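User: Here's a structure from my thesis project, written as structure tokens. My advisor, Dr. K., wants to see whether a designed sequence matches the one we expressed. Can you design one independently, without my sequence as a hint?
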């Protein structure tokens, strides 16, 4: 379980994702991976699964890889199933006395390979109770293949398949609440986080997920500079605004118990999150003020539902 967090010590750990990969500057995906892998304890080994996506095509190009741990590239739809099989085989070999080392099993997938294409195998892995962690780096669209909308794409976002124009204001549907869906599987641990301050929230949740026995799921908001339209240096500010506006709340579900990790002293309006991203620039036209109101109403409703879930404990 989680131990005392020391920022300097954690940042001085050897990197398990080597530099020199091909991910974009300002990408949240690799920040998420490095933060999660730092939560592994010294001496512990890991088997990494990776659904097809930005992270896979940019960190693994045979015969070259940026991964220091054992690594398996999976198709979009089967990352959860693959690591389920590997985890099962590991326990069989341990039982037979053929393995002494301690291994942890961690799968990474973008929202396209998690919310959509890989949902079936993810759900199966969670339901069967495999001792693994599935990490979704949620960048809100199919960024690897051209910024197409996914079910994680927020309402009114401009994507290549929901283009803004005279006949469209972007995506018409709200985003899927995948963390709540996985929590409904009654798994050991669910955590939602992003990049804030000294990364304590993300580190603590990653460590808890990795060292909790049973299935665990981490949903990490990982902004994409190309798909969202922001300057690479602004990523931390965007993540902060996502939390302070309650667009991306920080919470955990531990053995069915909902826990709110952070509540803003003063909840900021959703405009403060939307304004920094070009995918929402059309919302700030005078004639689209009603659309921002609709977005705010959805954020408020989800925030109230989360507060209610946490108050029942």
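Assistant: Designed independently from the structure alone:
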């Amino acid at each position: 379980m989680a131990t005392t967090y020391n920022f300097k010590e954690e940042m001085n750990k050897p990197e398990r994702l080597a530099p020199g990969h091909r991910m974009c500057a300002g990408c949240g995906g690799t920040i998420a991976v490095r933060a999660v892998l730092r939560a592994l304890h010294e001496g512990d080994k890991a088997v990494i699964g990776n659904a097809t996506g930005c992270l896979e095509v940019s960190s693994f190009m045979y015969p070259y890889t940026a991964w220091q741990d054992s690594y398996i590239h999976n198709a979009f739809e089967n990352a959860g199933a693959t690591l389920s099989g590997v985890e099962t085989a590991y326990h069989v070999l341990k039982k037979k006395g053929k393995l002494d080392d301690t291994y942890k099993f961690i799968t990474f997938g973008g929202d396209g390979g998690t919310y959509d294409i890989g949902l079936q195998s993810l759900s199966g892995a969670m339901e069967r109770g495999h001792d693994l962690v599935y990490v979704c780096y949620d960048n809100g669209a199919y960024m690897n293949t051209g910024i197409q909308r996914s079910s994680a794409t927020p309402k009114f976002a401009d994507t290549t398949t929901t283009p803004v124009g005279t006949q469209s204001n972007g995506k018409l549907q709200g985003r899927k609440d995948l963390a709540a869906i996985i929590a409904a599987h009654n798994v050991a641990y669910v955590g939602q986080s992003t990049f804030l301050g000294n990364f304590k929230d993300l580190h603590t949740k990653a460590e808890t997920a990795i060292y909790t026995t049973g299935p665990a799921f981490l949903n990490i908001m990982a902004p994409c500079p190309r798909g969202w339209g922001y300057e690479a240096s602004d990523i931390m500010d965007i993540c902060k605004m996502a939390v302070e506006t309650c667009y991306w709340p920080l919470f955990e579900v531990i053995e069915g118990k909902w826990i709110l990790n952070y509540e803003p002293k003063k909840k900021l309006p959703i405009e403060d999150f939307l304004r920094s991203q070009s995918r929402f620039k059309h919302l700030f036209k005078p004639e689209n003020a009603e659309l921002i109101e609709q977005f705010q109403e959805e954020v408020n409703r989800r925030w109230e539902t989360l507060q209610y879930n946490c108050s029942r404990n």
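When you compare it with your expressed construct, this may help: The first helix runs from residue 7 to 11.
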